[in-house]
Design brief:
single chain, 504 residues, alpha/beta, Rossmann fold, 2 domains, 6-stranded parallel sheet, 17% strand
């Protein structure tokens, strides 16, 4: 098959493709628990949106199916019900579901599964702790989405499930629906955005979600005496993909595979790593409505104005020469906060720091204590919004990403696009998207000392304004759009279809 990719300019900004009357690429349906801007907790929702939107823009028939959460109802008022309610049988229960769509003339068609008892809640996964019925909630969603597929996308060739929340859909396809031609022929791809979350449940959960007891076996669901939902999805998937090439290699190791390295290794060539992209139109400092002053790689005057505005907004000393570090992340151990707080980094008198994000109480308390002690140099903002992140990256000189692990990461791409140079650990997508010494600074050891050595390397270049401006220019011109990633996903879809055809 041949298709024409949309144009990409020198800065990686995507120009919208002309609509096509007869799409060439195979139809794809994404199943996801998160989708930006409707509902998300991290990078999953943004990544699915970015990929699906790009695919739809280049002529692929693309649909997205997600649960109808309370937060979605709060944001979208023009929901359109699709057909009558339908019944979903799983375990010993028969539950009623409704299908909705968000009317749209462009982009992917977004469908939502309604079940007030399961999804009309304050949060996606839990309020303070996971909801105890999450296995049942997402099993219901997976079954309801499958039941709706012939109506949603009768010409679909690929079902693309994302993370453990939708992995059961693949299992249901190959068990309960295995004798129905439409479902039997559907190729499946399972994206692993974060293998640290796998869906671990007691053994009786297998029967509770309506699956045969014999699937609780070391070859499918059984994992150290528990049901592992992600493992089951990987076993039945035609192809699996994670969100960066380096992380795909990490998953094959005992340290990086989160206990599933043998399963990932067993996939062989059917496991691929594709670096996520970002929306290069939304994250564009030349046109971003969320920044105080526009700027570009050829004229950084506006970036200096953005820095002054950021310092003023957070009560920091308004000094253009003081390096300003930003960290925009969930405040959890994965993001490397133990390295930031475990050494002397925040005690430096020659640098400023702003932290944006929310998470564990202990990190809130420790960061707030530093902000109270050094109010002219350290600031914290626990009320994360997209608008605040745009302003933060436009004004920051540097970005901290000392992650324990980072399958892909999107913030480092946004930061480079806005001329905020990352200091990051050499893991996952950070290694794949940052060129050490040219567009950022990488370190390897997971220690405060290694982080501080990376910061010192960065500040040495920062003090040389000619070298620094050259690095900022290189970073801002990197092509982080979705074009290349979308091409590789089409290759993976074709591989999955070939594998499915061979299994019939």
């Amino acid at each position: 098959m041949t298709r024409v990719a949309p144009s990409v300019d020198a800065r990686g900004a995507r120009r919208r493709a002309e609509p096509r009357k007869r799409p060439k690429a195979p139809g794809v349906v994404h199943l996801t628990a998160e989708y930006w801007p409707l509902a998300r907790t991290g990078g999953l929702g943004e990544a699915v949106n970015g990929l699906a939107t790009y695919q739809a823009g280049t002529g692929t028939r693309t649909a997205v199916v997600m649960p109808l959460y309370q937060m979605v109802r709060d944001k979208v008022h023009a929901l359109e019900r699709v057909g009558p309610s339908f019944l979903v049988n799983f375990g010993s229960r028969v539950e009623e579901a409704w299908l909705y769509r968000i009317p749209s003339d462009s982009g992917p068609q977004v469908y939502l599964i309604e079940h007030p008892g399961y999804f009309d809640r304050a949060a996606i996964y839990g309020d303070g702790a996971d909801y105890p019925d999450n296995a049942r909630r997402f099993a219901f969603f997976s079954l309801a989405a499958i039941a709706a597929l012939p109506q949603i996308a009768p010409d679909a060739k690929v079902l693309h499930a994302h993370d453990w929340h939708t992995a059961l859909a693949i299992v249901y396809l190959r068990t309960r629906y295995a004798d129905q031609p439409f479902f039997r022929d559907l190729a499946t791809v399972l994206s692993v955005h974060n293998a640290g979350f796998q869906g671990h449940y007691p053994p009786e959960t297998v029967a509770d979600v309506g699956l045969p007891a014999e699937l609780f076996d070391w070859r499918v669901f059984e994992w150290y005496g528990q049901m592992n939902v992600l493992k089951g999805g990987l076993v039945f998937a035609d192809a699996a993909v994670t969100v960066s090439p380096t992380h795909a290699r990490e998953l094959l190791t005992p340290e990086g595979g989160f206990g599933l390295h043998d399963v990932f290794t067993g996939l062989g060539e059917r496991l691929r790593g594709v670096l996520n992209g970002i929306d290069a139109e939304k994250w564009n400092p030349e046109s971003d409505p969320g920044v105080p002053t526009h700027f570009s790689s050829t004229d950084l005057t506006g970036k200096r104005a953005c820095k002054r505005a950021l310092q003023r907004a957070y009560g920091l000393t308004e000094d253009p020469d003081l390096p300003l570090f930003a960290m925009s992340a969930r405040l959890v151990s994965q993001k490397g906060l133990d390295l930031v707080l475990g050494g002397t980094l925040l005690h430096r008198p020659d640098a400023q720091f702003i932290f944006l994000g929310a998470g564990e109480r202990r990190y809130h308390d420790l960061l707030a204590a530093h902000a109270d002690r050094f109010p002219d140099r350290v600031a914290v903002e626990f009320a994360f919004t997209d608008r605040l992140e745009h302003g933060l990256l436009s004004g920051a000189d540097l970005l901290l990403m000392p992650s324990l692990y980072e399958p892909c990461g999107l913030t480092q791409m946004r930061a480079q696009r806005y001329g905020a140079i990352p200091v990051a650990r050499r893991v996952g997508g950070l290694q794949d998207s940052i060129e050490d010494g040219r567009t950022g600074f990488l370190f390897s050891e997971y220690t405060p000392e290694a982080l501080e050595a990376g910061v010192e390397r960065a500040l040495t270049v920062y003090r040389d304004k000619r070298a620094w401006n050259a690095m900022v220019k290189r970073s801002m011109e990197l092509p982080f759009g979705w074009g290349g990633a979308a091409e590789r996903y089409q290759e993976i879809y074709r591989m999955a279809q070939t594998h499915r055809a061979g299994a019939l």
